[in-house]
Amino acid sequence: MPPKVLLITDTATTRAGWVLTALRLMGFTAERAYTYSSGSEIRLAFPNAEHRLDIDDASLRNRLREYQAVLIVQPFESYSATNTPISYTFRFLGWNAPQDPPFAYFGIHFATNRTAIAFPSDFPLVRPDRANLASTAHKIGPDVFQAQTQTLRVRLTRENAECYLPIIADREPNDGFYVWRLDTAAHNALGSAGEVLAEVIGEDYVFDTTPICAYRYKNCYLLPRLVYALEAPAGAVNILRPQQAFWLLYALKCIGLAPRHALPMMMMLDDVQDVGVDTAPRFTGAPYVNDWLRNRLMTYEWYATEFFPRTQVPLWAALTTGGRYGTDYIRQGAWHLFMRGRRSLSTDYNNTADEALDATGVSLAQQMLQLFQREQNRSMRFCWHDHRVPLRSARNLSRHTDAGYPLAAPNDVPVWQGQMVRKGHIPPPANAVEIEIDGEVYYDIAPTMSGSGAVVWYEPRSLHAVRILVERNRAEMHALGFADGGIGGADRFHIAAVTHYGSPAVMQALCESGVRIVRSNIPAFPPENTQTTPFVPIRGVWVWGSIALDGQADNPMLNSYGLYDAANPTRSFVGSSTGVRDSGGDISSIWTTDPVRARLRAYRRLMGFLLDGYLGAAVYPQWMVFSHPPTLLGWCDPADPLRRFNAEDSAPSGSPGPYINMLLEFWLNFEVVYRVLSGYLTPATGDLVIATRERWVQGG
Amino acid sequence: MSAERITRREMLKRLIVAPVGAAALATLPVREGSAATMQPYYDPYFVAVLWEGRTRCDSLWRSLKGDVVPVLPTVQGTTPYDRLYWTGYALGSAPVNVAMRVWARAVDHNGVPLGNGWRAIGQATIQTPPQRWFRVEIPEGHWDEYRLEVRSATPRLVYSRVIASQGYWKE
Amino acid sequence: MPVRFLRNASELADVSWETPLPVQVANAKPVPTDTLLVATLTVDTTARDLLGSTAAELPTLDNCMQYRKLVWLAHRASNTAINYTIRARATDLAGTPLGSGWQTLASGTFAADPANPNWVRLDIPTTTDGYYDQYRIEVSVASGTVALTSKIVGVR
Q: In this structure, is residue A427 part of a structural domain?
């Protein structure tokens, strides 16, 4: 019998779809109830009953005892909300018998203006007083409702682990976000009935006492909020990405509810070999070509030899292809870098400007390729990723010429279907090929043939042309040393360049090559004249959407300039989203005058941005998140690319800010969180990813 | 009716086409007549009993299950069915005058309603002699949940079934 | 040779319409319906599809050929009239539309209705069978906005 969890929301339209979905994916039976007022009564509406919340109702208490946990969420309240129906759930603070379930409150504020329910006299957290928040709560950030803005360094006391976590809890409108103060005397008097679960460590903010952002009072857990999309129904495909999912999983862990299924987790990089196309270092002595090569190589080596052995979390990565065949091959991409020893100098795939690597560069590039070849099916999985002919294109396609493949030049093969008639409905025609489409066999009568020429016309509407494109990329990957032809090894995935989808025929061709998972776009791009869906496989392939978590907002082929660069803001993390990362200029305005504080603030928001993105995709698996290496690896210390970030480092002359290996820092923070949530997260495999998606859609 | 051996499935199909006392949803055309003309075009191929039981009707609008809580459904998981039927009879000896109404709504992947409230499907009044079967057709199918409510000025005990079918229309 | 079975423990009966084999079909299930879409949209005065797109050639749903009809079930946050246009078209075997444009199946309004202020429903198509490959479902209001939460179920 799977554990039964009740989720209480503040109103009927807070459907909490993603929370219920996450619970169900993990194997819990989850139900939703909601509070509402009816005349003078406050009621709690279950799917099959109603109880009063404004009185001490024994039947409600008995009903709640059926559940192994009761989670209470609300989407947007601030301190200005007083005795709303959801606030009556604080009645449960007094239901502490052994038969009562654990209650977990996600950001339901308990300020003094909530008077409907009398709090227990031994409640050990100071109740915030709006008239004096400075003394009764701790402000952690400006009034920006985003997980990354409100990410601080946190000590989880049970695990004795420190990590960066988003901790949106209480909100004072037009002011900012707050967490709690401990009433130390009351807390001490509780003994083992009170437990600080998470403390906030002030770095750029200085707190007069240690703020608390998670606490257990007897069988009641007070935690930060679950953020965004709580009004959306389960299965909704056009929602904001859920935030602060960490606290949902951590609550279950603290309560002691183990999941039947863990959520699969992988890291993901697109154009993993990309060293960047910048034509000049940011300043004299700044990282440049060989430094970029070295920092990619060393970071990926670190992943393979340190991160993966400790976590077993694989890196799913796209190697940029389309750089080998024909005369219009792209200069960006793996073949040009590894096999010709050259790198592109342009962000335009049609621009042929490039330059040769020097001997050191060639050696570093070779080592990177050898690392990838070694790690395929070990710590990493690689797939092809054609930027010359993205899946939706309509353009010339240069066939490959490698021997031993049926569709290579100069073989005369179909390129464009002719008349299509289902087999069995007409006598076998002359001049026809049999073609299987979606499980049915058709006669393709008088298809357009390629002749012996190398160049054919590609459009996603032609299954023949798509098969040629797929084979060309498989040949390129074979030649690069990947025996599986670049389908992610045993995990069988494809990461579509430019997040294109193409058509159902493209999905069929990918499926024929062994692919079962495609990261594309949900919904599809308008010009694709087709639509993707997460609910059913399309010709054998399940489709995911894509969310980029890049360290800078400029072209992703350009190397980052670190946490902040006032002269080139969009090439730096903070300057790429000032509303969220630099609210009121709280970093940029002190970047030179109070540099250590500014850097610490920027760093923690970067950690929150990346961590929260990955966890949000894990709990509601409609999308996969990924990054482009230049945006996170562009600013590593040339002398020591794996050196840990130090906010007190002096920046070299002319440099906008200290060096930072953003991927390394993220992965190290993630590793701590992953260990904390072990049992709830598990290394991804293709099978697990598909099984999770199948469980997700079973409800409908 | 002569005794014959039939499968339960067949029996349920026949319930759908059996002659009944006059009862129809107020918003829809009345279906009268014998089995041959009752359902000339709709051919059910799968039929299920969703609920069966007794309801004590009184002056309050009660779900067939007896509750007066408006948010609670009577039957759930009804998405595959294109029509529902409510069929039953009233016990006792007095003439029957039972009002009924049907509500419906959709839910998301976790069974949570897309919104509050219900869609009104229709209403009907059962006025038959006692102990006589009635049948009400609910032709608007494919909702996820339905709430069927009954009310009677004179308290009555009603024994009824909610049946759902999948079928197709034959020309 | 007809198939025969022992009836009433003593008499042989031929299998026929009047005397079927006395077996019970176990675990019979209804033909499943598929949930194809769950989405919330802020409907405004611009005609956009249920996923929010104004791109006229972009379908809302694809790969719908196996469904006899779609059922559009929705909840609107307020009793506001919502205009809808349902378009459909077929595609070739590669999933590409046979041509540009659409066949308009239906055009109408979920009128403001005190009897049904929130829940609305439309069968697509209303009367005949569907089996189209792609559908585009557009909505708009005359003024203001209203939140519309939709679920579309494919019926075989």
A: no
